[in-house]
Amino acid sequence: MTPLDRRTRPALTLALVVALLALGVGAGWEAARAQSHMHMHAPAAEKGWLVRLSPDARTPAIERQLRGFETTMAEVSYRYTEMYWGGVDGNWGYAEHMATQLGNAFTLGLERRPQYRKNADALFLKGAYLQVMDAIKAKDPDLFKQRIETMRAACTACHAAEAHPFIKIGVPTVRRNPVVND
Questions:
Q1: Residues 157 and 69 in one domain
Q2: Same structural domain for residues 70 and 25?
Q3: Distance of CA 29 to CAs 21, 38, 95, 100, 177, Å?
């Protein structure tokens, strides 16, 4: 090794170490900055689908997103199943909670789709639904099972009255939630 090599080699090594260290610090800084990045509010043109619509078009667009009465029926089906298992298990608080939420779902659905109110009131809400609520409040398993049968028949009759006779309600057979009655 020449005297020039002996003098420049440590300097080149030091420069390389400093450069690599600087790259590592820079990469680490960028990674940290990317993880803590706060999203800035975009201009109106870049915002979501609803904001891009004219004010007059927003309500019909929201109604399309809520869809027809089938979204209400999906929630009612879920609440019915949970209410049923609550009553069967003697978890009357849970059964009552689910029955109340079932009624709330119906009320909101009928607010969006009032054309279904006449049959819903006559065949379900003012009859079978209230009878099941009474059985739940009485905490009577036999009465509850009888009233569930009445409710099932009322649901099926309402579906038929709304031109959906192919929707027949059965007794739930599958539990969806791991709720227990301790």
A1: yes
A2: no
A3: 12, 15, 54, 53, 45
Q: Are 86 and 41 contacting, i.e. CB atoms less than 8 angstroms apart?
A: no
- 132-163 tens-digit pLDDT: 999 999 999 999 999 999 999 999 999 999 99
Residue 97 lies in a domain: yes
Residue 93's alpha-carbon distances to 63, 68, 177, in angstroms, are 34, 31, 15
pTM as predicted: 0.69
Phi/psi at 50 (nearest 5 deg)?
-70, -40
Question: What sign for the dihedral angle of Cα 11, 12, 15, 21?
Answer: negative
| Residue found by looking up tokens 């940290």 in the block | 32
Residue with tokens 């065949």: 123
Structure tokens at 79: 């609440």
